[in-house]
Amino acid sequence: MQADPKEIIDIGDRLLSEYPELFTEQYETNTRLVQRLASVDSFRTQTRLTRYITRKKRTRNGSQS
User: Which domain holds residue 32?
Assistant: First the structure.
């Protein structure tokens, strides 16, 4: 079963609030962190979660890469 968008946002926001210093603007780094910190049921959900966190970090820091 795939996670819905609200679930991705909820999990992503929770991870960002619990580990704000760990996540970066780098997708590859965030992928490894999501694998370690979140128990997700599929590769697609993991990818969506990583993209959300990376996008949020880039927006928060003001860069638009």
Answer: 5-60
